[in-house]
Every structure is written in structure tokens, then in C-alpha cells.
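pinned: reference chain
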Amino acid sequence: MSGMRARQSMTFPAFQQAALWALAALTMLLATSVRSNFKSTPPIIYDTYVVYVLFLSALSFSALRDNRIQLVKSTATELIITISDVQLSDDGEYTCSIFTMPVRTARATVTVLGVPGKPVITGFDDAVEEGGKVTLTCTSSGSKPPAKLHWYRDQEEIQGRPDVVESNPDEPTYTVTSELTLTVTRNDNNALITCAVDHPSIANGDKRTEQPLSVLFSPSMSIQPESDLPREGEKFFLQCVGNGNPEPTAFVWRRKDAELPPLAKVDGAFLRFESLNKSDNGVYECQADNGIGMGDITHTLLVQEAGVNAADPTAMSTSSGVDHAVIGGVVAVIVFIMLCLLIVLGRYLIRHKGTYLTHEAKGSDDAPDADTAIINAEGGHSGVDDKKEYFI
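pinned: its C-alpha cells
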């Protein structure tokens, strides 16, 4: 029960008390003042082998009636006893009496710690579907004072409900219980839920129990091709991979907007092509079922020409790079030739520019006809400025 303590006392038999009183009267002048200094002992862990209790006395003592209690030292001023095989019943107050005038008494309290048992986790027997709730109960018995319980998910501490403490019948110990409620996700699958005991009688982490979680969830899908550059005429396969709990066992293959190719065969999680062809290009879908739910994924298949080295993933990119380089070189040559032609033509036109003279015939208005006007104009315009026209 809470606060229960076994009380033991040190007393003298009646015949010894009379003798001691007589001795006290005879030695009163010598024993003028005797003081006791009796200290409380630190807490003792249950099952520790020996506990020492110090008694200061000027006379003698009477041993406690228990075979586990032995006298270790007895002098005129000091008495020492030991308690072996310490039990919870040894917890309590111890008294030492000094028979002076007046009688003096000193007391000490011995605290025995009850070591808690290893915690037990209950409440999780079957796997739980994703999104469901699970309630775990952790119990530890035999602690004194009451132990404290802590919950962990892997290495992270999580909060459960406050501890419930109950006293054990007919024992000065306690049973401590704690509950933890979780809403599980697929990330909680295989996570370790730990209940650890915290108590002054043990080191942290000495007593703990782990419980792995099992969460059921629908598969998440992926498709793994045999090669990143499938080549025409080769054998080839697509593998459908489903990550779920439980693992999926039923697979369905489809080709979007078309039937599966004649040379494509479904082999469980595999779609196998006996000989790839350009006509096999398309979008392929895999669907998997694990009894909890279904998952699906698609993959686009692009078959390369037979001349492309599928073993060399850089072949396509290298060939494409060469084509672009050739085209760039041709364009550069054409541009260079056009520039050269323009330069040559410009220089030619500049060097062969023409000069033309036009004359205004004076007096041509008086000429009877055109021929006469031209004749009249000849030699009559030597002073006229030349009119030049340049053509480029």
C-alpha cells in the first residue's frame, strides 16, 4: 500500500534494563553528557545485499530479532549493524536508544526502492490498414516509488496518455500503465514503437520493450525497362514493380489506344517482346492489385532504328550533334560565299562608273527640223558644263 513502511525498533530486555540503570547511577559523575548523532541513510535498491546503519551510544544495544541483521562493530561510542538480503519490508524507521539520565533516542529512515519490471506492450495483434487507428498499452509492475513510462517511434519520443498508477495489493509497490493511440500511414509500416521505464533504481534505457507496426496499404507502382534505348529487332521486356503491403501478386498489362502487339506476351509482372518493331511504339500501362487496393503506372516505349547502337546510350545524342555541326558548317560556307560576291560586285561597279554628257542646243527652236537643230548645236556648246550621270 502507498506509504506502507515496516517499522522495527531497538530495545533492551527487562533484566538488562535494571542492570543498566544501576550502572548509570554509579557512573553518573563520569557520563555527564552523551550525545547521539544518527544520520538518515540514502535510498537502498531492493535486492542490494548489505545496508549499514550507524549507532552512536555510550552503553550497549539489543540486536533486532532477525537473522539478516548482524552486529558489525560495538565500542563505547559506536554500534554498527548490517542488514543483508535487503527486502521491501526493511523499508521504514530505525531507532537507537541511549540509557542516560534522561534516556535519549535517535531515529533513521531507510528507504528501499522497488525495481520496476520490464514493460509489456499489448493491444497490437494484427496489421492495421492505412488510415486506421491502433491503441497500444504499456504496463510495468513492482516499482517503488511509481515509475514513469515514455513512448518512442523509432528514435523520436511521442506523447501518450498520462500514466495511471495503481498500488499492488499486500505490497508497497505500484503498477504503472500508459496508453498510446496512433493514426497510421504507410510510412509507419515496420516502424518500432518503444515503451521505456524511467526510475531511480535503473539507468535510462535499461528496461524497454519494442513493438514493430505492420500497416496494410495499396501498392505504389513503377515500370523498369530492360534498356533505356530499346533497338529494333531485339528482345525486350518491361517489368512492373509494386511496393505495397502485402506485395501485389496480380498484374494487368494494357496498351493505350491499341491492342498489345502480337509479339508481346504478358508474364505476370513482365511484358516481354520477342522482337521489337517500330510499330511497338506507344504508351503501356501496368495495373497491380494486392487485395488492399490497386495501383497503376504508364511507360512510353520508343524503339530505335536498327542502325543505332543501343549498347551506347550516347549514340543518338552523338549522331544528332554531328548532323547539327554539318548543317551549321554548310550555312556558314554559303553566307561566306554570298558576302564575297557582294564585295566583288560592288568593287566592279565602282571601278566602271560611266560619264554621260548632254547638251542643250541653242537656237534649236528656230531650226526647221530635228536634223538641222542637231547640226546647229554642234560646236555651239563647247562652254556648256558637262552633265555626268553615275550608275552603280
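why pinned: The CA atoms of residues 38 and 106 lie 6 Å apart. The mean pLDDT is 77.
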